Amino acid sequence: MTARLGRLYVAVILLLLALPLLVVAGISLNGGQTLRFPPQDPSLRWYAELFRAADWTGPLRNSLVIATVAALIAVAVALPLALHVWGRGGWLSRALYTLGVAPFMLPPVITALGFLVFWVALGMYGRMGATILSHGIFLVTLPLVTISLGLRAIDPALLEAARTMGATRGQVLRTVVLPLALPYVVSGYAFAFVLSLNEYIIAYMVAGFTVETLPIKIFNSLRYGYTPIMGVVAVLFVALAAAVYGAIGVFGNLPRLLGADRVGDR
Amino acid sequence: MAQARDDAPTPGWLGVVPGAALLLLFLIPFGIMLAVSVAGREPGGFYQWGFDLAGYRRVMSAFVGGILLTSVAIAAGAALIAVALALPFTVLLAGLSRRAQTAILVALLSVLSLSEVIVGFSVSTLLSRTAGVGNLLAWLGLTAEPQSYTPSLFALMTGLTYLSFPYAVLVLYPPVARLDPELGQASRTMGASPLRTFAGVTVPLLRAPILGALILVFVFALGSYLLPQVLGRPEHWTLSVHITDQAIYQSNLPLAAAMAAVLLLATLALVGLALLVARDKGAPA
Questions:
Q1: How many domains does chain B have?
Q2: Is residue B36 part of a domain?
Q3: CA distances (Å), B232 to each of A65, B120, B212, B261, in order?
Q4: B63: which of A19, A69, A187, B116 lies 20 to 30 Å off by Cα?
Q5: Does B78 touch chain A (CB under 8 A)?
Q6: Cα–Cα distances in angstroms (integers) from residue B273 to residues A93, B171, B260, in the given order
Q7: Which residue out of B117, B128, B183, B185 would a mutagenesis test of the A interface target, given it has the greatest number of A Cβ atoms within 10 Å?
Q8: A117 and B162: CB-CB below 8 Å?
Q9: Which residues form the ABC transmembrane type-1 domain (chain B) (predicted)?
């Protein structure tokens, strides 16, 4: 009886979480330029419109370019940092690790303002490069955490065996450590990519008036004219996030990635 | 690694690249921001270097004091609701099969990574007159006409709770998943009901993580900058919103930077407190 009550509680909460998204998905199907639910004369025309309407394809392209490159930068910074912390330890690498995790602990508006004044001082305010670099640094946390987790799971006996067989440090890194860490590098990249797509405040503060991303475009549309395309973007973002995390869940151990030690590889 | 230095599995220079990147692109911006917080204001432009405490004087004023109070009250309310809902949810979640846990975690992560813009848009649509709750209540005959429930404090708290709930679950998940399930089983064997076990065994064991989660979710909610604009009225604007407003629309970067510095200090103190709480009474590592 109580077990059933518990299940019911979990189900109700999940339903409540899904509710706003279901309504938005319904709205994206409206045939006309209205935001009604249930949708009126349902059609998929706004899904095509996102890829056709000139005022939406620009932000779409910006968002994709920024997320692709920024996530790459985040991994490029996080991978050597995670390796360094794992292989060497010491106060300096711990300090660096803290620095890498810090952006996520602070209210994002602080980081955004820091980047704003930085790029103004450098004369790069309003350029896409500034948005990309800012996102890259801001999102270092995610690959840093996942890669560190992956490195910690490596059996030290493997490294010793490779060294005993005469492999050099570089060979061990290339042939043992990196292949074992690769899945965690990929999931770190995926996390960073999804979050960069969704990030608003930094993109807005650094170059919001010149480099419009999809979240910025949606926010502007909230003020200057609703359209069902907003619902389309929301649906696509949810679907993309679910696909990425779903893939990590299928190919990896998501509970362990999120900190549950007890859930084994059943 | 208890190896000699040259025997470490990674070369020493490896840390230089990320170290330089973080220093250049993270610490220096913060330094500049602190410098701007005492810089002079330049009408129409960004700022003039100098030493002027005008920004901080305004931060100490009643205007900013009121904003701070509003922000703290709203964020604390959202943190309390989110953690109260998340605690039983997380305990139940940790008891499910790995498959079910993975599926639910995928859903939570998907919601958590959603842009605040999208959450705000979705919740405001749900509470609007033409779609969602307004329609439903009218259709059920509870209200004569479809009504809009946004913008309002209720809408804002709903949105903030929606935003914070997945975060609260993910913060609580590691300590809850690490709990020894035998303790709960022992309590059940002795005849305690599941609810009694939850209140008498699980919650007391988790006191430190719960406190830590409350603080972290509070900081998380404090950082919300879009929901107060989309779902709340101007009197519900939090410090984060005003920082953006001053920086972008009022072109008062020094004041924005001074407010951000205050928010930064408060956050660092709170996060430090959360870590301390977790280390003191948490898992005996």
A1: 1
A2: no
A3: 33, 10, 28, 25
A4: B116
A5: no
A6: 23, 15, 20
A7: B117
A8: no
A9: 68-274
B172 touches chain A (CB under 8 A): no
Query: What secondary structure does DSSP assign to B224-256, as a single string?
Result: --SHHHHHS-GGG--HHHHHHIIIIIS--HHHH
What CATH number should be reported for the domain whose range is A54-257? Answer: 1.10.3720.10
Q: Which residue matches tokens 């076990």? A: B197
Pairwise CB contact (< 8 Å): B177 & A259 = yes
Chain B CA closest to residue A233: B118
Domain of B82, CATH number, reads 1.10.3720.10
Residues facing residue B40 across a β-bridge: B48
For A77, the closest chain B residue by CA position comes to B18
B28 within a domain of the structure (yes/no): no
- Best residue of A81, A96, A109, A178 to probe chain B, by most B CBs closer than 10 Å: A109
Task: Give chain A positions within 8 Å (CB) of B223.
Answer: 106-109
Quote the minimal CA–CA distance from A186 to chain B in Å.
16
Residues in A closer than 8 angstroms to B30, CB to CB, are 114
For B238, the domain range is 74-251+262-281
Q: What angle do CA A240, B169, A246 make, to 5 degrees?
A: 25
Task: List chain B residues with CB under 8 Å of A27.
Answer: 125, 131
All residues of chain A having their beta carbon less than 8 Å from the beta carbon of residue B225 are 107-109, 201
List chain A pLDDT tens, one digit each, 266 residues: 577 888 899 999 999 999 888 988 988 998 888 777 778 888 888 899 888 888 899 999 999 999 999 999 999 999 999 999 998 888 888 888 888 888 888 889 999 999 999 998 898 899 999 999 999 999 999 999 999 988 988 888 998 898 899 888 888 898 889 999 998 999 999 999 999 999 999 999 999 889 999 999 999 888 877 888 999 999 999 999 999 999 988 888 888 888 877 654 43
Q: Identify whether B204 is preceded by a cis peptide bond (ω within 30 of 0).
A: no
